[in-house]
Structure formats: structure tokens, C-alpha cells
Specification:
This protein is mostly helical and about 300 residues long. Helix content is about 70%, strand content about 0%. The protein contains 13 helices and no strands. Helix 2 packs antiparallel against helix 3.
């Protein structure tokens, strides 16, 4: 769960999206040879898969776009390569989805600047047509940011992509499930905050996905919401209901919070990548405290 991977369905979605985008870009070039918005693909790729995939994609799209452009292939190659590279570099520089618009605009500005420098070196800078071309390139950059922003929720909701944007949103105390945990099981909420920070540091030290680990740890105990008073961190009045029931029933209540946690994650529509953190955090060893209580009362108990 800590590694970034892609399923066949996810890759098929991206392949289909790339094909549609190339067709749309070819139509856009009919309006103006400098209306280049294809950089939204490496921008989206940087968010979904990281820069290592997005940079080769930017190079490939620059070459393809150059072949699609009727005449003036080198300026197109230069604009798309420069704009796509800058968009990829800035895609994850900020922590909000709106940053995609800024990344697209910065990519467009970088593409426009490279075109201006190329035109100046060729001795054609200063004409009205160059100014119009620069406006088209900037507009294409902004459109690439808009397209990436529009495609991202589709990839997240329908194909199971889990982006850093989504993970950061899940850390907000305003999340409905965390709100419930804070209000109904405040001790568990504080415990989860401490564990999430410890886990994030540990996973970061071994080179894993620290943000995913942090979020998973933050939600690992949400199943305690079903019966918060049966867990010691929420027993503020020193009243322990386990004192009034059998250790066998206590065992069932304690271990059931794992199953309850998975059910709550699904009920609130949280990503499936968080479920292993809930399923696996409790381990498989004996619940020593209740096992000893059962031994004291019954003499012989199967572990």
C-alpha cells in the first residue's frame, strides 16, 4: 500500500485520455498553430504518477505535437517541451488543487517566453502576429491547467487514483469522519494524531510514502466510534464497562473495531488504500489483559 502503482484499468484510462487529447490538440491547431494545450497530459501525469513518468511524457508529446503542426514544427516542439517541463516541475509545488491552474499558466508563460526568444533570434520579434501568438500560447497554458483540474476528480473517483491532494484533504479536522472521532471519541482522536506523526516519521526514514502512512494511521482506529466507551483512552470518568462483562465479550468488542473501521471507511467513501491500515493494525496475538482475566475466572482457556 505504500508504493505508487497503476492498474491496467488506470493505464487504459490514461491511454484513452491521451488519444482524445491528441485529437483535440490537432483540432485546436486548426484555430491557430500556437494554441497548444497538450501540456495538460504531463501535468496530470505528474500528479497521478510523479515526475519520473511525466517528464518522458512531456518529451514525447512535444515531438508528436511538432508532427501535428502544419509548418513551423520546431517552434511547436520548443513551446510544448518548455511549457510541459515547467508545468511538471510546478505541479506539486503547492498543496491545493487550484495550484494546477497556476502550474498550467506558468507552463504557458514558459512556452511563450521560449517562443519569444526563438522569434527574436530569428529576427521576427516585434510584430503584431508575434503578440497574438504569445497570447495563444498563454491561453493554451491556462487551458491545460483547467483540463488537468477537470480530469483529476474523474481519475480519483472512478479509477482509484489516490493523489497527494486527496490525502492532504483527508488530514483536515473538518473531514466528517474525523469530526465524529473528535466529538464522540476524543481520546481515540488524540491517540490517532500521535500515532500518525510517529508512523509518518518512521515510514519517511525507510523511504516509503509518509503522507499515505500518516493518513492511514490517522484513520486506523475509527472503528472505535461504534463503542467508544469500551476503550480506555475514552474512559474519562474512570468507569470501565469491561468490569461488568465477561472477558470473552470484552474480547469480541475490542477486536470488532477493526471490522467496524473498514465499514465506516466505506460508508464515508474513503479511499480503499486506507483499509489495510485498519485491517492490519491490531495484529493476531492474544489480548493479554482479557486472556489473564479469563484464566483467573475459568482456570483453563484456549488462546
Amino acid at each position: 500500500a505504500l508504493r505508487r502503482t497503476a492498474s491496467v484499468g488506470q493505464l487504459a484510462f490514461l491511454a484513452g485520455l491521451w488519444a482524445l487529447a491528441l485529437v483535440a490538440q490537432r483540432v485546436g491547431l486548426a484555430a491557430d498553430a500556437h494554441f497548444l494545450f497538450i501540456a495538460f497530459l504531463p501535468l496530470l501525469g505528474a500528479i497521478l504518477f510523479g515526475e519520473r513518468l511525466a517528464f518522458p511524457l512531456a518529451v514525447w508529446l512535444a515531438v508528436v505535437s511538432a508532427f501535428l503542426t502544419p509548418g513551423g514544427a520546431f517552434p511547436t516542439l520548443l513551446v510544448v517541451l518548455t511549457g510541459g517541463t515547467v508545468a511538471v516541475l510546478t505541479a506539486r509545488a503547492f498543496q491545493t488543487r487550484a495550484s494546477l491552474l497556476l502550474a498550467g499558466l506558468l507552463g504557458g508563460a514558459a512556452g511563450a517566453l521560449s517562443f519569444a526568444v526563438y522569434t527574436a533570434l530569428a529576427g521576427g520579434f516585434g510584430t503584431l502576429s508575434v503578440a497574438v501568438s504569445l497570447a495563444w500560447i498563454l491561453g493554451g497554458g491556462l487551458l491545460s491547467g483547467i483540463l488537468a483540474l477537470a480530469a483529476l476528480p474523474l481519475a480519483e473517483s472512478n479509477l482509484g487514483f489516490l493523489t497527494e491532494f486527496r490525502l492532504l484533504e483527508l488530514t483536515s479536522p473538518s473531514n466528517p469522519l474525523l469530526q465524529r472521532l473528535l466529538l464522540e471519541a476524543p481520546g481515540t482522536y488524540q491517540h490517532s494524531l500521535i500515532i500518525s506523526n510517529l508512523v509518518a516519521q518512521a515510514v519517511s526514514n525507510i523511504g516509503g510514502n509518509a503522507l499515505l502512512a500518516r493518513v492511514g494511521a490517522l484513520y486506523h482506529d475509527v472503528g472505535k466510534l461504534r463503542r467508544p466507551q469500551f476503550f480506555t483512552e475514552n474512559q474519562l470518568a474512570q468507569d470501565n464497562p469491561h468490569d461488568r462483562i465477561s472477558p470473552h465479550l470484552s474480547y469480541l468488542i475490542i477486536t470488532s473495531h477493526v471490522r467496524d473501521g473498514v465499514e465506516l471507511l466505506r460508508e464515508y467513501g474513503l479511499p480503499a488504500a486506507l483499509e489495510p491500515f485498519v485491517n492490519e493494525h491490531h495484529g493476531t496475538t492474544v489480548l493479554a489483559y482479557f486472556y489473564k482475566r479469563a484464566l483467573e475466572s475459568e482456570g483453563s482457556v484456549q488462546e
